[in-house]
């Protein structure tokens, strides 16, 4: 295998630099060409490297390319080095393929924006950071990508920074992410101090070899997972993601659906040895994922903002990925990451297409009946919704089922049950969205209706491609019940994953589980149909019957308010109090008080204009003499 | 080598200042260009120092000795891998600040540049002196130009601020002077000869009880300079009132005199006392990190905010210094350079805003990015460097500091890590309120984006930030041997112990074998030459 894979992140990096320096002087056409081209080249190299990888035997994983020694001081050594193995291959291809389609879509979506070059600079920078994250061969370099994507997210959420809400959302995302990053950093320090290496290969061997105590492994695993909850928007650090919808829609699709937010899942899969050795940490990952999956699903039920529904849905789906990782089915978790990247970016881009048609309208209460105006957007949106809802034969079904079956097989019945509950919610809120947006009565503003139009091909073609993959992407990972060989995806990732103690479910149980999944998905869709098409007055009745519950959900459990009240306000009020009482009164008071008390201050003041050097020297000399005298006698 | 390059670098600015005495004050342009020229020449000369400096020798290089007053008072200068970078940093920032005051200083241009150049000599002298008396002279002398820079070209409360600055610093340095005299007499009693050479003092085995008093006297002087909590209140006032260039030099280099003092004097001269106090000092440093950050969060004045951020950053540097292992000390020195660059750059950015709006209050701004997109990008990078975003210089220093501290004490490291959250909070919030949001103040509509001159002085800093973030090797390798030496010096009372337990984790033993090997080779070589 020719080691060209290190060029994968390098190409978007060069493009970023060119755009950052010359962007304002370049034509829009050229900018679009270069930005999309760079990502496409990355994709081609990824595919090429992937083919090369297939020719290697699993013992040769990972292929490492060391460029130079980056930070080296004493026991701390981090290189600028990349690695390529099946997990990296999956991630680089997903990131560059979905990234490329979203870049192309953005040409249409951002066409009128006056900061066109800034947008593509940041998108390329993001692609670079994300590729760095998934290709780094050591944890410190991974952290560079980890923080880099967080920074790009900050910049792109706040892309329209003139809006208070956008600037605020960007800042919030960065700070909340940094809380997670602090945990990640501590985990990293524990690893380096105790293992003495930063390279993943060495870390894996050391932990698998049992050179760390089990308590330490659990601690490190939890600290790293804190980082994951920040980046991947899980409880308790999910609060930034719904607000992140202030960014342009392609950004939501790329960063806040397909790639960056799944970085936590990738990290846990990469560090899987920790979560395998420490059962407790694995359980925490699974249960947090399961609770998040249901919790975020309930919040999606009542939102009226089309992008916010999708945001909560993302949080919920990432919860599923963590269930997979937590129960030891890392391949299933990554499989869901891969299918989700297609259908969720499809959903976001389709939502963007709706917004584009409706002059930026986001409120579903002002939509309805759009089916006939949007002959391309509607079917692609529908495919995305079916895929995410878990209807058989589309990609989402296979990956979600793999996760839930694994949870059941591991004996985590609570986690499995939460997963099933989450699945009902998913099917329900997705079809609520479909019915409210595309079906039923038209509730459009007359002004908006005048300008309604289907999006240009540069936007609908990426939609169609993503829809195509949302349908077929699952067929590389068919359920094990159909035969061991059919799950190519599992077999591909197997060499990197811990050997699963296969608790064999009987064929009957497996089919039963699959049947339950199908029933659950269909019933969710049916309830949505009943509520929003058949009997549109039912939701209102429910709202008036359970006003408290509705308000709680509508206001997202008041978590933002609670965080604000418990953490932010006390920090600011407390600091202000201390500043006035302590810095300005006690310390300064003491100093100034002493000085003016002796008259020294005032006297010196009056001398200032008239050759102070003399007096200064005099005081200095006097002091010296006195002190010298004290010393001698 | 016979060229006294260190003396040339140290006194070239002062010579320039002397030259200005003979230039007519009306020739402002000539004065500015000459000052800039001297600054650039001095920077090029110090680059020469960098390339000639041998990173594998820990002892001072470019040493010059000359008779002076006698009784141990000698002219004795030289630099090691620590002071090398402080000299470089000083000379890197000097031309930049001279360029930055091109428009903002219009009154008494001649005097301003005279003081600026004298200040440079004073600072450089502090970093190169190897004789305690010489060091003290520079340490005090540097106060005078700084006093005038704030007192004459400062803001509304300049007199108050400059006096506070001088009184705080003088208080500490007088105690240090007493301690120097005490050391002087102790050495005379012990050795029978006079000396103020710090290497002679390094050999001195002091009674631990005396060490305590001497350490406290030295330590207080340096702690005030850093400034460590709770001696920090002079800093925000001095920064707020100082002209931009003054703030840049103050944050960029003056504060490093405090950390440098700990590294060169307080810790190696009094190792036993230092070890006794380190737990308390480390706690004070952590308090400084968190306290400074929280205070920065609520400041209404941009400059004051950056000043408090300095308190927080210097807290991390001090914590790393007290952790006393190879990684933490290299991180600390690296972070000293980083802080000089990033905080210096932030003050320059604030200065650029101030020149346009004549206000430093955050609430008077908002939406500046729309009007000044190029500036917005530069300001953002400086901020991110300060926040410690990987890829920029701040991260390398921060991660090494935290790693070193982590080896020293895990709890302190956990508390220290809060800096990455709080640092992001106060800076991003400030950036949001100043640069983003709707444009409400009509005055901002008249803002012009950066001029070529402003781009000219920001670009070198930005490039260096990226370089130091991506390729720190040229910096770290030059300081290895000197930090080994320092650690040996500080741990010398334990040498006996170290030899017995070879597995004991003393930093010089655990570092890479190659380096030690080379060191030994070099030493034998140099001995042969002698």
Task: Describe the structure in your own words.
The complex is a heterodimer of chains A (about 625) and B (about 525). Helices cover about 70% and strands about 5% of the residues of chain A. Chain A has helices at about 5-20, 30-55, 85-110, 115-135, 140-155, 165-195, 200-210, 215-230, 240-245, 250-260, 265-270, 270-275, 280-300, 305-325, 330-355, 375-390, 395-410, 415-440, 445-450, 455-470, 490-495, 505-535, 540-545, 545-555, 560-595, 600-605, 610-630, and strands spanning about 65-75, 75-85. Chain A has a two-stranded antiparallel sheet with strand order 1-2. Chain A is globular. By secondary structure, chain B is mainly alpha-helical. In chain B, about 75% of the residues lie in helices and about 5% in strands. A two-stranded antiparallel sheet of chain B has the order 1-2. In chain B, helix 16 packs antiparallel against helix 18, helix 16 (about 375-385) runs parallel beside helix 19 (about 450-470) and helix 17 runs antiparallel to helix 18 (about 410-435). Chain B is globular, with a radius of gyration of 22 Å. The interface between A and B is large, with 65 and 69 residues.
Which structural traits does this protein have?
heterodimer; A: 633 residues; two-stranded antiparallel sheet; 2 strands; 72% helix; 3% strand; B: mainly alpha; globular; disordered C terminus
């Amino acid at each position: 295998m020719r080691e060209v894979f290190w060029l994968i992140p390098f190409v978007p990096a060069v493009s970023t630099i060119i755009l950052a320096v010359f962007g304002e002087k370049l034509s829009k056409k050229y900018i679009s060409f270069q930005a999309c081209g760079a990502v496409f080249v990355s994709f081609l190299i990824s595919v090429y490297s992937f083919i090369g990888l297939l020719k290697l035997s699993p013992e040769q994983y990972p292929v490492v390319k060391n460029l130079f020694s980056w930070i080296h001081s004493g026991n701390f050594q981090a290189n600028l080095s990349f690695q390529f193995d099946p997990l990296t291959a999956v991630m680089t291809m997903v990131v560059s393929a979905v990234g490329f389609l979203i870049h192309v879509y953005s040409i249409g979506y951002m066409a009128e924006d006056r900061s066109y070059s800034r947008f593509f600079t940041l998108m390329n920078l993001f692609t670079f950071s994300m590729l760095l994250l998934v290709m780094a061969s050591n944890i410190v370099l991974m952290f560079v990508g980890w923080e880099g994507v967080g920074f790009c997210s900050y910049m792109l959420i706040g892309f329209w920074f003139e809006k208070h809400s956008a600037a605020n959302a960007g800042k919030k995302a960065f700070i909340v992410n940094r809380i997670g990053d602090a945990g990640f950093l501590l985990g990293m320090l524990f690893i380096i101090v105790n293992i003495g290496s930063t390279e993943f290969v060495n870390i894996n061997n050391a932990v698998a070899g049992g050179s760390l105590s089990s308590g330490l492994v659990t601690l490190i695993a939890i600290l790293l997972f804190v980082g994951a909850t920040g980046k991947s928007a899980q409880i308790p650090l999910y609060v930034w993601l719904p607000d992140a919808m202030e960014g342009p829609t392609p950004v939501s699709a790329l960063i806040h659906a397909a790639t960056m937010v799944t970085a936590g899942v990738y990290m846990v899969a990469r560090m899987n040895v920790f979560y395998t050795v420490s059962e407790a940490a694995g359980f925490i990952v699974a249960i947090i994922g399961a609770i998040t999956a249901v919790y975020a699903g309930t919040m999606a039920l009542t939102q009226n903002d089309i992008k916010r529904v999708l945001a909560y849905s993302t949080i919920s789906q990432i919860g599923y990925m963590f269930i997979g990782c937590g129960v030891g089915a890392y391949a299933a978790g990554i499989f869901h990451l891969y299918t989700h990247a297609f259908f969720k970016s499809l959903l976001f881009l389709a939502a963007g297409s709706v917004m584009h048609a409706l002059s930026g309208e986001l409120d579903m209460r002002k939509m309805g009946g759009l089916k006939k105006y949007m002959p391309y957007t509607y079917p692609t949106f529908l495919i995305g919704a079916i895929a995410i809802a878990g209807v058989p034969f589309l990609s989402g079904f296979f990956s979600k089922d793999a996760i839930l079956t694994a949870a059941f097989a591991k004996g985590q019945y609570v986690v499995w049950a939460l997963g099933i509950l989450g699945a009902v919610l998913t099917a329900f809120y997705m079809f609520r969205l479909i019915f409210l947006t595309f079906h039923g009565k038209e509730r459009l503003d007359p002004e908006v209706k005048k300008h309604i139009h289907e999006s240009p091909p540069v936007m609908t073609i990426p939609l169609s491609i993503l829809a195509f993959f949302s349908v077929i992407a699952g067929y590389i990972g068919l359920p094990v019940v159909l035969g061991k060989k059919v799950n190519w995806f599992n077999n591909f990732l197997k060499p990197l994953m811990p050997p699963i103690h296969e608790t064999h479910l009987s064929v009957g149980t497996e089919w039963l589980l699959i049947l339950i999944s199908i029933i659950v998905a269909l019933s969710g869709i049916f309830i949505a149909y009943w509520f929003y098409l058949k009997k549109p007055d039912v939701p209102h009745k429910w709202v008036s019957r359970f006003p408290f519950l509705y308000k709680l959900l509508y206001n997202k459990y008041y978590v933002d308010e609670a965080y604000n009240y418990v953490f932010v306000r006390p920090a600011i009020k407390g600091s202000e109090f201390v500043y006035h009482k302590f810095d300005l009164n006690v310390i300064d008071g003491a100093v100034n008080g002493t000085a003016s008390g002796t008259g020294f201050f005032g006297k010196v003041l009056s001398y200032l204009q008239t050759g102070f050097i003399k007096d200064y020297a005099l005081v200095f000399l006097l002091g010296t003499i006195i002190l010298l005298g004290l010393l001698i006698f | 080598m016979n060229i006294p390059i260190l003396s040339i670098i140290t006194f070239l600015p002062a010579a320039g200042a002397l030259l200005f005495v003979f230039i007519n004050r009306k020739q402002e342009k000539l004065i500015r260009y000459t000052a800039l020229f001297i600054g650039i020449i001095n920077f090029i000369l110090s680059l020469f120092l960098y390339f000639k400096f041998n990173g594998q020798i820990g002892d001072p290089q470019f040493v010059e000795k000359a008779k002076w007053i006698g009784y141990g008072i000698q002219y004795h200068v030289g630099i090691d891998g620590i002071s090398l970078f402080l000299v470089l940093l000083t000379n890197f920032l000097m031309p930049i600040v001279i360029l930055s005051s091109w428009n903002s200083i219009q009154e008494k241009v001649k005097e301003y540049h005279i003081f600026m150049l004298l200040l440079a000599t004073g600072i450089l002298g502090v970093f190169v002196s190897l004789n305690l008396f010489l060091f003290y002279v520079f340490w005090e002398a540097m106060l005078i130009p700084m006093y005038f820079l704030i007192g004459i070209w400062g803001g509304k409360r300049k007199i108050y601020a400059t006096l506070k600055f001088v009184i705080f610093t003088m208080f500490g340095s007088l105690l240090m002077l007493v301690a120097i005299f005490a050391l002087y007499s102790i050495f005379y009693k012990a050795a029978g000869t006079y000396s103020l050479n710090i290497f002679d003092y390094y050999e001195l085995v002091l009674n631990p009880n005396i060490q305590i008093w001497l350490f406290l006297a030295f330590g207080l002087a340096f702690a005030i300079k850093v400034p460590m909590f709770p001696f920090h209140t002079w800093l925000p006032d001095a920064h707020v009132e100082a002209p931009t260039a003054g703030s840049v030099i103050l944050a960029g280099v003056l504060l490093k005199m405090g950390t440098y003092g700990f590294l060169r004097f307080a810790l190696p001269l009094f190792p036993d006392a230092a070890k006794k106090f380190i737990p308390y000092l480390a706690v004070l440093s952590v308090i400084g990190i968190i306290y400074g950050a929280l205070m920065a969060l609520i400041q209404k004045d941009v400059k004051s905010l950056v000043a408090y951020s300095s308190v927080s950053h210097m807290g991390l540097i001090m914590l790393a210094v007290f952790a006393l292992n190879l990684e933490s000390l290299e991180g600390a020195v690296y972070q000293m350079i980083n802080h000089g660059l990033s905080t210096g750059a932030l003050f320059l950015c604030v200065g650029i805003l101030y020149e346009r709006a004549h206000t430093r209050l955050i609430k008077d701004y908002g939406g500046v990015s729309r009007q000044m997109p190029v500036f917005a990008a530069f300001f953002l990078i400086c901020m991110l460097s300060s926040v410690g975003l990987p890829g920029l210089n701040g991260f390398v220093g921060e991660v090494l500091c935290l790693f070193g501290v982590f080896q020293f004490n895990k709890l302190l490291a956990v508390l220290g890590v809060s800096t990455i959250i709080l640092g992001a909070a106060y800076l991003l919030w400030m950036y949001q309120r100043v640069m983003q949001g709707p444009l409400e103040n009509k005055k901002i509509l008249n803002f012009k984006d950066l001029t070529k001159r402003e781009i000219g002085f920001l670009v070198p800093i930005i490039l260096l930030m990226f370089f130091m973030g991506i390729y720190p090797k040229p910096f770290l390798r030059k300081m290895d041997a000197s930090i080994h030496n320092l650690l040996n010096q500080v741990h010398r009372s334990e040498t006996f112990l170290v030899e017995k337990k070879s597995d004991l984790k003393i930093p010089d033993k655990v570092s890479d074998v190659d380096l030690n090997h080379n060191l030994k080779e070099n030493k034998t070589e140099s001995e042969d030459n002698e």
